[in-house]
Amino acid sequence: MFKTISKEKYLLNQVTKLIESRNGAAIDEQELNEFIKQWSFDYEMEKRMELGN
Predict the structure, then answer these.
(1) pLDDT at 37 over 70
(2) What CA–CA distance (Å, rounded) separates 33 from 38?
(3) C-alpha pair distances (Å), 21 with each of 6, 12, 26, 47, 51
(4) Are 49 and 1 in contact (CB under 8 A)?
(5) What confidence tens digit (pLDDT) does each residue in 13-25 have?
(6) Nearest to 49 by CA among 1, 10, 15
(7) Cα atoms in the Cβ-side hemisphere of radius 13 Å centred on 43
(8) pTM, entire model
(9) Mean pLDDT throughout 23-50?
(10) Could you tell me the CA-to-CA distances from 37 to 11, 23, 26, 52 in Å, in that order?
(11) Which of the four pLDDT bands, split at 50, 70 and 90, describes residue 40?
(12) Mean pLDDT, the chain, as a whole number?
């Protein structure tokens, strides 16, 4: 998966899923930034695992 998807695309997909799961409820900037930090870490870990590093 990670060989064919950029980090930006991955984060966009995650944000889209978050927005859809909230059913219109607001997401404040600090909360969104925390999600993005976690997703960025997750992405990097998955990428490393895929590459065998």
Answers:
(1) yes
(2) 9
(3) 23, 14, 11, 25, 31
(4) no
(5) 999 999 999 987 8
(6) 1
(7) 19
(8) 0.75
(9) 91
(10) 10, 22, 19, 23
(11) very high
(12) 88
Structure tokens at 6: 């950029």
32/11 Cα distance (integer angstroms): 11
- Single-letter code of the amino acid located at 42: D
Exposure class string for 12-27: b at 16+ Cβ within 10 A, else e = eebeeeeeeeeeeeee
DSSP-assigned states of every residue in 1-53: -TTTS-HHHHHHHHHHHHHHHHTT----HHHHHHHHHHHHHHHHHHHHHHHT-
- Contact between 47 and 2 under an 8 Å Cβ cutoff? The reply is yes
